[in-house]
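Note to self: keep these together.
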Amino acid sequence: MSIKYQPLAVQDITPKSFQPYGQVIFPIADGKPFDQDDAQLCLGGTPRFYMMRLAKTGIKFQSLARHQQCTQCLGSVGGQDWFIAVAPPCSGDRFDLAQLTAFRISGNCFIKLNLGTWHAGPLFMADNMDFYNLELHNTNSHDYEVYN
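Structure:
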């Protein structure tokens, strides 16, 4: 059985366009007081901040994941652009595929996903890429739901 892929338009990420799914965080001057432009984190446990090396993912995907117990931050190491597909948080384990949106994320920012945001990615065409990732130490074993 072959999988039929549906094309998805990609837009450049902006704080306004990404607002239903999370935040876009850009560099700021050191010493700036904390405010609403900083990542509004909800960790509720032991955080894990690490760099992950991913092998080529391509830009096609068959499933999305979500984490309902913590926010997640992702950003590329080395300033490379990458992609993510997202759908807004919803109750239950299904969402409307018409709400699926794809973004190109520039290498000069990172994203914070809201609690429960469905996501596929990071997606990229390079042979491999490094990303920093902030989540809980047990996110992948205790807070990982998948929608195929």
